Amino acid sequence: VNLEQALRGAAERGELAVHFQPIVDVATGELDGFEALMRWQSPALGFVSPMEFIPVAEETGMIVEMGEWLLRESARQLVEWSLQRGAGARPLHVSVNVAVRQLRDGSLVRIVDEVLRETALPPSALWLEITESGVMENIEGTLLTLNALHALGVTLCIDDFGTGYSSLSYLQRLPVGIVKIDRSFVSRIGDGTNEPIVRAVLAMTHAMGHRVVAEGVETAEQRDWLRNQGCDLIQGWYYAKADRPENLTKWISPQV
Ligand code: G
Ligand code: G
Ligand code: MN
Ligand code: NA
């Protein structure tokens, strides 16, 4: 069976699921939110990794519809969790990956606006992750879309930061609130070569007024080092892998 054929209509047939990975405030250890990650269980192909199907979805344009489904589902889930936690609890966010193809598609701003209205999710609780390379490919075109999204009140994140050809001047021009340091930097904390880069990224992004999420944190040593350096939020298997919503109840209770 051809992957592209199998993927067509997967959302309508109920084959797609959203898993959520906790993102933690490193200073307090409190839950700050989740990254939403798409999962596909194909009847014909079995479990297919997003590393395989997301590129196909991008090339064919299917990512636009799948991404709309993901946004709606992620927002709906966060609203449900927030109601469970009650009004006094720390507000949570949900961070959703947006592919370059979705950014280029004229429908993204309308879709985000609709999802916010339908679900009554507070706009700032919706974070949209855009890769650095995606922005750099077409910075002027992307900037118009990012400014329109920013005007809706959503929080924009630069994902996989440090892996592309980043320029400091572009970062200053983007209406982003969050920079996510790629896990390739985090994984080598402790070997003496990457620490200066991570320190520099933290200093620079904080000077610009952005908050920093470190991805791929797997050990207590990495967590401690990042906390000492003033990193804001961390995400990684040290805390939790992405999991289905029903397995995340222990994270949702406001005491955690
Ligand atoms: O989810 P991991 O758990 O395997 O994800 C692998 C890659 O697929 C990551 O680079 C991640 O950003 C990407 N990915 C996962 N879910 C989505 C999604 O819903 N949309 C986009 N654009 N990328 C996703
Ligand atoms: O590209 P993006 O950052 O959106 O991708 C998230 C990817 O990182 C997913 O595949 C997710 O499963 C993976 N991931 C999340 N935490 C960790 C971690 O601590 N270690 C490793 N190796 N991968 C992680
Ligand atoms: Mn991401
Ligand atoms: Na990333």
UniProtKB/TrEMBL annotation:
EAL domain residues: 1-256
The protein, known as: Bifunctional diguanylate cyclase/phosphodiesterase
Species of the source: Paractinoplanes lichenicola
Organism lineage: Bacteria, Bacillati, Actinomycetota, Actinomycetes, Micromonosporales
